[in-house]
């Protein structure tokens, strides 16, 4: 019965975001204990602390772009839109065009890319972010960045990471800029 209810929840998520949840259904079907732990992880991945939606989604988008070839990125784009992040900011984050972003968002984009590249420049950027949002903001960004890497990795591990797709934003098709810092 619990599997039925959880699967119904997954199907609702799939329908809401036009997202393939087959890998989650696979986990649910094969290991309920693993699935419940994965659902616990979902609460961490959704945490935004004291960050505004556009900042947390800037970090999530840059992080998912480092790992994914489309479907997970599209999901994060859809969630960002739902959270009220402007299409212009989403487009600039995906294009890595920091000139089109407010200074705080450009800082988050540069910080995320530096963290993922293990670039020491992240230390300088961290201090600037800490001045804006404090250590709580740094923790929130850490959770946002690290959690986005889990989904594509899990999908590829389970054999579901084979389909690439274009990223759409309203009526535009976007090409990500994944320049490694």
UniProtKB/TrEMBL annotation:
Q: Which InterPro entries does the record cross-reference, listed alphabetically?
A: AhpD-like (IPR029032), CMD-like (IPR003779)
**Carboxymuconolactone decarboxylase-like domain boundaries:** 35-96
Give any Pfam family that matches. Answer: CMD
Spell out the molecular function terms from Gene Ontology: peroxiredoxin activity
What's the protein called, per UniProt?
Answer: Carboxymuconolactone decarboxylase-like domain-containing protein
Query: What organism does the UniProt record list as the source?
Result: Pseudoalteromonas amylolytica
């Amino acid at each position: 019965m619990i599997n039925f209810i959880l699967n119904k929840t997954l199907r609702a998520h799939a329908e809401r975001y036009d997202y393939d949840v087959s890998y989650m259904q696979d986990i649910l079907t094969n290991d309920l204990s693993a699935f419940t732990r994965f659902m616990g992880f979902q609460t961490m991945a959704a945490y935004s602390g004291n960050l505004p939606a556009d900042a947390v989604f800037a970090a999530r988008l840059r992080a998912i772009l480092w790992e994914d070839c489309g479907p997970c990125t599209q999901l994060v784009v859809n969630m960002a839109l739902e959270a009220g992040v402007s299409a212009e900011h989403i487009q600039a984050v995906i294009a890595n065009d920091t000139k089109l972003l407010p200074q705080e968002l450009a800082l988050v984009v540069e910080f995320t890319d530096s963290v993922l590249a293990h670039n020491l420049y992240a230390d300088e950027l961290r201090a600037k972010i800490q001045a804006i949002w404090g250590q709580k903001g740094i923790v929130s960004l850490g959770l946002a960045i690290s959690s986005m890497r889990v989904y594509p990795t899990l999908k590829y591990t389970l054999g579901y990471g084979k389909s690439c797709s274009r990223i759409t934003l309203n009526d535009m098709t976007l090409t990500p800029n994944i320049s490694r810092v």
